[in-house]
Structures are given as C-alpha cells and as structure tokens.
Amino acid sequence: MGRAFEFRKGRKMKRWSAMAKAFTRIGKDIVMAVKEGGPNPEANSRLRAVIQNAKSANMPKENVERAIKKATDKDTANYKEQLFEGYAPHGIALLIETATDNNNRTVANIRSYFNKCNGTMGTQGSVEFMFDHTCNFRIPNNNVDIEELELEFIDFGAEEIFADEDGILIYAPFGSFGAIQKELESRGIEILSSGFERIPQITKKLTEAEMADVEKLIEKIEEDDDVMNVYHTMEE
C-alpha cells in the first residue's frame, strides 16, 4: 500500500470525532459552495460534493436545505479559506486549513496557540511544500476489481486506489478532482463522499512525551471554530 493508505489509517480514529464539529464544517462548505456557484446542485459540482459529504456524515436533510437557503441570503457572510503554517515543538511541521469570516480574529487565535504551546508560526510557504495536496473519493465496494478500476482511472489522474471496511477510496492530485468526479458520475458510480487532504511527504518519529507536546498544540488548534483541518509530519 502507498502513502495515502498509511495516512488514512493513521487519521481514521481521530478525524471529526465530534458530530457537531463535522456539521459546522459542512455548513461552512455549503456557504462557500453556494456563494461560488449558486444553490442548484445540478449546476454546481462543488455543492454536489458537499451534499454527498453531508449525507455520509448523517447530517439531516433539513439541515442541508436550511444551510443552502441561508447561504443565498445576501446578508450571510462568506467564508474565506486561509492556510496557516508553522512548527510544533520537536520540529514537527503543521499545516492548518481554516474557513473564516474574520481573518484578523483567526490570525490572532492561531498565533496565540503556537505561542502558548512552544510552537512557531511560520510564513506563507514555509512548510506547505512538505505536503502533497490530494483529492479523494469514496465509492461503494460492490465486488469491484480494484486493479481494473485503477487502470481505468489512471487516465483521469488516479494514483492510489484501495479498499477498507467502508468502501473503496480513490486518491489523486488536487487538480484531478473535477475530472474524476465527472467520470464517476458519467458511469453512474455512487460517490459516498469526497474531499481534499494534505499528505506529509516525510514523517518524524517522536517519543511518547514529545508526541504529547505536539498533540497538546494540535488539540488546541482543532478546538477553534474557524479550523477545518490540521495536518502534521509526526509519525502516528
């Protein structure tokens, strides 16, 4: 198995464990998608993907519809996606994805977390190059021949395809999202969920005490309402 498989296995138990946090994230994704491409999922591929993710997270249909309606209100603030970079203790690189309607607040908060936990907030581009920006799709595993599927989707950018207990995962570079989404839909293959992740190119092994130092900072950052994802180079 490749790096995407190992990365997914390492994060599986930690990611979006709190349902309220997951719903907040999806709500922001809906606002950004509607503001960008309108409220009609048929004409807005990004919104279509977010609705699939909402269904996968068991978000009630009425919540989704309410979020779409709210997003069309001109008085509803839009969220801007902002990337923050820095180092946790023991030389672990952190890449933080946020969605915020007040960048000054978010910058101040993220900086305070680094300062309180002996980390260092970096400048733009200081650690981003250490991560591969990828997209992924989860589809049902209906006795699919994975090797054959991989061969068919290489032309659309797929780099790694593997199965787990929840279905089949397709990983590809960030820029291949649209092509793979379109091909899956044209074949009538159900997309259970989709998204983007940043996979570290190299990871660093720490002692248990050192890991605790890093996890203290990560947990503090993840508690922030503006934070969508935190990626790191610590071996899990």
UniProtKB/TrEMBL annotation:
NCBIfam families: PRK12378.1 (NF009044), YebC/PmpR family DNA-binding transcriptional regulator (TIGR01033)
Pfam families: TACO1_YebC_N, Transcrip_reg
Entry-linked InterPro entries: Integrase-like_N, TACO1_YebC-like_2nd/3rd_dom, TACO1_YebC_N, Transcrip_reg_TACO1-like, Transcrip_reg_TACO1-like_dom3, YebC-like
UniProt name for this protein: Probable transcriptional regulatory protein ACFFUU_10875
Family to which this protein belongs: Belongs to the TACO1 family.
Gene3D superfamilies: 1.10.10.200, 3.30.70.980
Domain TACO1/YebC-like second and third: 79-234
Keyword terms: Cytoplasm, DNA-binding, Transcription, Transcription regulation
MF annotations from Gene Ontology: DNA binding
